[in-house]
Amino acid sequence: MKVKNICCIGAGYVGGPTMAIIAQKSPEITVTVVDINEKRIAAWNDPDVEQIPIYEPGLSEVVAEARGRNLFFSTDVDAAIDAADMIFISVNTPTKTYGMGKGMAADLKYIELCARQIARVAKNDKIIVEKSTLPVRTAEALKRILDNTGNGVNFQILSNPEFLAEGTAVTDLHKPDRVLIGGDLDSEKGREAIQALVDVYAHWVTPDNILTTNVWSSELSKLTANAFLAQRVSSINAMSELCEVTEADVQEVAKAIGMDSRIGPKFLKASVGFGGSCFQKDILNLVYIAKSFGLNEVADYWEQVILMNDHQKRRFAAKIVKTLFNTVSGKKIALLGWAFKKDTNDTRESAAIYVADYLLNEQAEIVVYDPKVTQEQILADLDYLGTRSEEENRKLITVVNTAEAACAEAHAVAVMTEWDEFKTLDWEAIYTHMLKPAFLFDGRRLLDKEALTDLGFEFYAIGS
Ligand code: UDX
Ligand code: UDX
């Protein structure tokens, strides 16, 4: 079967970019991305393509090429489901904040709502593709809902996890290390569905890089990949603390071990802690699944990755307080960067949120500058923690438009995100306008220690 019409439910960080690339590379397939969030869809349709709701290098060019040709954004979910022969589910699956599995399990209510909506609307056979990261065996639940509430049509469920990283989404999608497709390999219809999705990717991905497995392996591979990546960051961050109390330097250690081809050089950058929508959520989910099967040692093993990450964020904030003579009360602290990594405006689980919250509890005054994150988002992130009232957050936090403005008259500056522009700031001028001693905390190992110490800064970097 040849796919002619694709619908994707969820126009977020995953659904938006993924569908834009599929549309760009497959001009004969009509791709409609739908979302219940009207504001988001309006932004995807903004005549000024620079105003699309997600900032990713190269994405606006792709959208400019395909939008209106075979790429459409809409809030009419029913119409898009009806027209499609393949439906991607890309809605968010946050960690549950209530009830059973609270704080650990993935909340699948949006996934279930999608399944029920598809079942209600569908009048012909459809292939359903899980794009959202899901607990193992979610496909089974999806299938039962679809088969029991549908109009007697046939649904094939595929798992096709997304491995793109934010900030490099376009290159990751153009040149994926692999595309993973899980499906029912044991049935004729299942194999046909898998082949239909393979054919979509084959527009630009070589066959050797398209992997097909059973559904459960595919679902679990996504959780495993994120767990392994996060584990590397927690491992190097654990060593960063040890480096700080010895004479070792974590960057030198990372380079030395990374040259071992069995270890490899990537994902060994010590930092103030990993963030993003996936790592923590997926590991918590893995821990929850392991526990639910009674595999307590497996659960504890992976949970440690999260505990280490929490420790790293707290440790960085505590270092600031200790260095500033054990008090930051009433002191102005500039945070450079709020996004969870550079080249994205995404702030979910960003270390900056937790460091700021810690410092606010110590009664610091925080000034934030991030080149891509809005004031509205920064305040919403802090309000969401619920540590103090919204009024108090607004009293203690200021968001400014330049790094220089953030640092002026500050007692300390902390680099939270590795934005390239922070490397080339006029640090001499910044030093002049800060209170002395001028403390600089590099949570990303971004800056040149020697040069900044020469300028007069009291300089601290993670892991040295
Ligand atoms: C994705 C994946 O889908 C998630 O499983 C993964 O682990 C993290 O990344 P992401 O695209 O980053 O999620 O989420 P988000 O940017 O929140 O986008 C989800 C979109 O789905 C939102 O725009 C939301 O409005 C929409 N949505 C949600 C619907 O259209 N319908 C719903 O019922 C629920
Ligand atoms: C991750 C996975 O990489 C991707 O495959 C999956 O689809 C979604 O989750 P993402 O969260 O977008 O992608 O970004 P990633 O580059 O993995 O970074 C995650 C966090 O780890 C960031 O906060 C980053 O700053 C941090 N990190 C990463 C480090 O602190 N050190 C490193 O060496 C690498």
From TrEMBL:
KW Ubl conjugation (keyword) present: no
One Gene Ontology biological process: glycosaminoglycan biosynthetic process
Source organism phylogeny: Bacteria, Pseudomonadati, Bacteroidota, Flavobacteriia, Flavobacteriales
Keywords, in A-Z order: NAD, Oxidoreductase
A single MF term (Gene Ontology): UDP-glucose 6-dehydrogenase activity
Residues of the active site: C278 (nucleophile)
Gene3D superfamilies with a match to the protein in the record: Cytochrome c1, transmembrane anchor, C-terminal (1.20.5.100), NAD(P)-binding Rossmann-like Domain (3.40.50.720)
Protein name: UDP-glucose 6-dehydrogenase
This protein's pathway: Nucleotide-sugar biosynthesis; UDP-alpha-D-glucuronate biosynthesis; UDP-alpha-D-glucuronate from UDP-alpha-D-glucose: step 1/1
Ligand binding (substrate): 162-166, 222-226, 262, 269-275, 340-341, 444
Residues bound to NAD(+): 10-15, 35, 40, 91-95, 132-133, 166, 278-281, 348
UniProt enzyme class: oxidoreductase
Catalytic activity: UDP-alpha-D-glucose + 2 NAD(+) + H2O = UDP-alpha-D-glucuronate + 2 NADH + 3 H(+)
Domain UDP-glucose/GDP-mannose dehydrogenase C-terminal residues, every copy: 334-449
Function: Catalyzes the conversion of UDP-glucose into UDP-glucuronate, one of the precursors of teichuronic acid.
Alphabetized Pfam families for the sequence: UDPG_MGDP_dh, UDPG_MGDP_dh_C, UDPG_MGDP_dh_N
InterPro entries xrefs: 6-PGluconate_DH-like_C_sf, NAD(P)-bd_dom_sf, UDP-Glc/GDP-Man, UDP-Glc/GDP-Man_DH_C, UDP-Glc/GDP-Man_DH_C_sf, UDP-Glc/GDP-Man_DH_dimer, UDP-Glc/GDP-Man_DH_N, UDPglc_DH_euk
E.C. code: 1.1.1.22
Record-stated family: Belongs to the UDP-glucose/GDP-mannose dehydrogenase family.
Organism: Leeuwenhoekiella palythoae
